[in-house]
Structure formats: C-alpha cells, structure tokens
Amino acid sequence: MLDFVKSAFAPRYTFENADTILIRGRQYRYISTHGDSHYFVPADGQGPREKYENATIAEMLETGHFDHRPDREFSYLTELSPHMLTLLSDEEKQRASEREAIVLAAFEKYQAGDLKRTDASIRKNSDSILGAATRMLNTYDAETNSLKMPSPRTLRRWMSAYEKVGLAALYDNVSQRGNYGRKLSEEQRFFMYSKLPGYLTELKKTPANIVKDVRNAFTAENEKRKGEGRTDLLECPSRVTILAAIHHLAPFRVKLAREGVDAAMRAFSPVGEGIDVERPLQRVEMDEQKIDLISLMEDSGLLQMMTDDEKAQLGLDGKSGRWWMTVLLDVRTRCMLGMILSRTPSSKSGLRALEMAMRDKGAWLDAQTLDQATRATELLGVLVARGPAQKLPELTSDDWDHAGRVGFQFTSRGEEGIREALEAQFRKFDGATGTPGARKIFGCFYNALAHSKSLKEPGDIARILRNVITENIAMPAGTTVLGVELPERRLYTVASLAKEQCLDSRTLSNVLVAAGAIPERAPAHFPIPVDKGREIAGHMKRTVSVISLWKDMDFTRPIIDQLFYDRLLTPIYFGKPGLKGRTQKAVDCEEVAMLVGKLHAKAVELDTETDGLVPVSKAAEKAKVPAITVVHMILGGFLERVFRLAGQDGVAALRVDPVEIKQHRSACSEGSSPTEAFSSLKISKTIGWCLSA
Questions:
Q1: Where are the domains of the chain?
Q2: Which in 259, 324, 389, 439 has the greatest CB count within 10 A?
Q3: Are 21 and 27 in contact (CB under 8 A)?
Q4: Counting beta carbons within 10 angstroms of the beta carbon of residue 128, is it exposed (0 to 12), middle (13 to 18) or buried (19 or more)?
Q5: What digits encode the pLDDT tens for the residues 297-337?
Q6: What DSSP character marks residue 283?
Q7: What is the pTM of this model?
Q8: Residue 523 half-sphere exposure, CB side, CA atoms within 13 Å?
C-alpha cells in the first residue's frame, strides 16, 4: 500500500510539562517540541521516547486515543539548551570574537604553508599567530587587553570545531554559571518571576532583556542587603533557568499578551476534542495528495522489479512530474476504503475512488467482525513487516497504521493470501538448526492469538494459523495448538520416527533420502508424512542384510548376486547408488520369503536323496549354464523333475535333474539376459532397470 504525507494544514497543539497526557490509556509525560513534532515518554519511565506530529495527534483525538488535560498551575522548573547567539551577553560575544581572531590567524598561516597542525609547529608560531590576531581586532577597534594564546591542543580543537560549525563552536559556558538547583528558594522565585511578566506585554521584550532584568533585580537586592550588613545574599538563577521559565509560559497567554486576541485565536483555535465519531462509516472523508511515487516504490522494493519500459510507461523514469492520490478514509477506524492514482486529479478520479470504496473487499474479511478483521490484519502486518521478534507494546500508532496497510494486502485476498504470508514466514526457517516451534517462527503473531488477555474470540485467523502449524511442524498426538488438541500425529521428524520405531536415526535418515522422503542434508525439523514414514520404517524393520542373505536362503553368494542382477530380489531403494547405510545392502524379508515360496511351490516333496538329482548349483555346473538360468527354468515351468527334500528350508533344499536342464538349455538361452543387455548398451544396471521399469 502507498503512504502519503500528512496535510500541511493540520492544527497546532501546545503542551506543558505538568500536563496530563493519556495515549491509548497510558499516561505519558511531555518533554519538548521541535517544529511540528512533540516528544513524550511514559510517565512510569518504562519505555522509549515517542514522537507525535500535530496531524497524528489530530487523528488520535478523533478516534479517542489521545487525551490532553492541561495543568492550570504555573510550570517553570525545566531545562532548555538555548542556541540563539543573539541572546548571549556582550562578554560572551567579546570572548568569542577573540577566539575567532586567533583561529582565523592560524588558518592564514596554515594556508600559506607556514604552519602545520601539530603541537610543535603551533608553539613555534605562537607569537606570530597572536600578533596577527591582535591586528585583526585592532582593525575593528576591539579591545585586546585579555587576548591570550591558547595551548596548541586547544587551538587545534578550536580550528576543527570552527571548520564544522563556525562561530557558534567558539562560545564558552562561562555565562551558564549560576544556581542550577532544581529547587529555588521562595525569595529566588519571587525575584525571578517578578520580572517575567515583562515578557507578557505589548512592548515585546526579548528573552535577553528579561534575563538582564532578572539579574539586575538580584544585583539590586544583594546591594541593599550588603548596605544593611546582611550576609544572606541571593544567588541569581542561571540564564538557562530564566530562559526555561520564559519558554514554558503558556503559549496562548504569550500570544494573547504580545499580539492580541485575534492572533491568539487564529493560532490556537483548532485545539479541541476533534470530531465526535462513534461508529465505523459514520463519517468518511476524501482528500487528494500529491505523492512521490518513485520514492515510495523504491522503498518498498517494487521499482527494482520493473523493466525500464514499464517504468517509462508509468512515468517512473526519473523525469519531472508527480502523481496524485485520491483517497477515502473512514474517520472512526482510519481504514483506507478507496484509493486512486492519477496524473491530474479530477471528478473522474473521485468517482473511481468512491466505486472502489463501495466494492467488496473480500469474502473472508466480510465474515469477520470489525474487531477480528482489524486485529488479524494488523497482527499479520506486524509479522510480515517487522518479524516475529517484535514486541507489540513498543509499537506506536504510526507503526500500527503501517502494519495494517501491509497486512491488508494479504487478508483482503482471504485465506489464500493469509496462508501465503504465513507459509512464506515458515520458509524463512527451512535452514534453521534444531527444531524451531510455532512460538519461534511466528513470535508475536502466535503469542497474541494464543495468550490474548481479552476474552474476545480472535476469529478465523486462529484456525488458519493452526492449520499452517500442524501441516508443517511435527507434533505428537495430544499437543494443544491455539486451544485445540491434536487428535493424532500428522508429521514426523527423523528423530521422532526413529524413536518410535526403535531404529538408528542415522541409518533411517539415509534410507529416507534414498526413498525421496527427505532431501539430502535435510534440517532436523524437516517434516515427514506419517503414512510415508511408517511405511519406510516398516520396510527397514523387515530388511535382511545382503551379507547374511545367503545364509537365510541357504544359497551360495554368487547365486545371491545373480538374483539381484536379474531383479528377482530388489535391493531396498536401489535408485540412488553411493548412499551410506543399508540402502543398497538389504532386501525386504517378505520378498525373500515370496521367492523361496514360489520355488518350493514348483517342487515335489522328496523323502531321501535320489540318484540323478542334485542341488541347483551342482546342476548348473554339470549343464554348463549360470545358476540363475536354472532358477528361471524352475520359475518358468520348463523343468518337470523338480523336488524338495523334506525337513530342509531355502533354495538348498531343491533338487533338479542336470540332463533335463541340458535339454532346455538352448530354449532358455535365446537372447540376452538383462545384465548382458545392459552391458551391450554400455549403461549401468541402475539406469537399465530404470529404463525398463
């Protein structure tokens, strides 16, 4: 959303230190005013200084968020740092002139190359510098009796300060000496305040005149007491204290006394409670503002996403010209109801803004109450704009307004837009170490919805956040998320799955990578769907190591290798060679049992050994064929004389006739085996089986 500059015709406000200021129900203390801005701090001292402009105060007065209760008593004891050189005394100006002459003389010699800005060089040229400074002062008939050469270090400091600030840097604080105590005696207050009314006259005395009047009053009183032989002389307040008392005179009273009733009313008549608006849409205001669209889009990052042609088409190519923004604002909620950009404002831009204000803002927002929609929009904007670590009590009214504009970009698009913002926030923690939870990822947004101090229902935003959390964070059954208990586990991490299935987490991680359930080098909190995780873990628990497989099948190692080559047995997750763990070194025991069962189903039970029948490996040796070919003959039904010794298990219990194998050798050896075919094509077995799948 676009921001715009506050109106230059906002009312002006005035405050005093003793006034009671309530901002959003919290009491603040007034500090100072600089231009159009006023500075306040919490009265309890817990919080940073906050700045509010007159236009912002006017808005907050309208919405009831700002309450000013002026103090009717006379406030005077505050500090003020005067910067107006015209208020300084003649003695101060004399000392500053002498210092300036010395500095200018030093600069002349420095520019001529006769002086270096070192202690040794300054000491060497001190007499010539002092002489040049004296001649400068004599030119203006100034006194030079008190002219003294400063130390080299002091002169270098004066020169540097003069280069940066000018003459103001050469004034000292001698005139500031006086009574700086926070509590003045009754007599001191009497003599000081007796002269302050001189500032509230049509004579328009300057603050410097009042300072002199106060000092003269103290001097006269002390002279009188000395003449009477009294020793209780009064210490004159410092110039800062006197100027502070003048500065904190009521501005309206000062304007009234010095310039008259009409000037005072013109300056301060806008001060008041503002427009009384009780409900949303009771009053809608329209305004037109000239904005710097290039700066706004550059600050938001949108300008960098546009091409040069698009910038030129929109007039954002740096050429002169400003855009006008026609905006409609609801006075009660300060929500922006409609906004139109135009090169030249006209009645058409006003009508288009009105049409936008009447348009549907989204089904999701319409389904919420005003409080729910506003709160959800502002909280989401804080999360997106300031991150999860932001502390909500530290936000100012301007911060909340900005957050509302950011959040509306998402809530106006309903659940889809809200989920987009929440999932984007979740993706920021994809590479985080450990297992960050919802409180870490969503921070202030989660805490505001989970631990709200009010009893109001947060609305549908809580359900959306709960769904995003349960869809991305692994949590056990029974976990309470935003007031709702999770009935069953939906996701695992590698650690939680290994713990539940009693498996080694490192081996399980390698198997999950091979199965494509998690990426390589996945973070510890990477979520694994429950069904997928349990399926893979079940395969792992049923696996048989390839190293011991020949013993379990009662087969020789070469035949086991041939079974893998021809895919009569499939290594678990064989698709990614080079991975560690069991991924290429194990096979599902159910698959082994199924293969042995098929072979036994083709055989007839035999009580004792019979002549002419030998084990599979021996028969392959006599028939001069690979043992895997004999297995294929048995499974394919080519052999009729296949027997199984009673009381024995595995493939070793099978007995076949070598003569019968020789008879079918030619028929079963036509073509190439898968391994031979892959070798002829010069591709690996892995790629070959993937192509044939």
A1: 89-170, 186-268, 284-485, 492-588, 593-675
A2: 324
A3: yes
A4: middle
A5: 766 566 666 777 767 766 677 665 677 888 888 887 778 88
A6: S
A7: 0.39
A8: 15
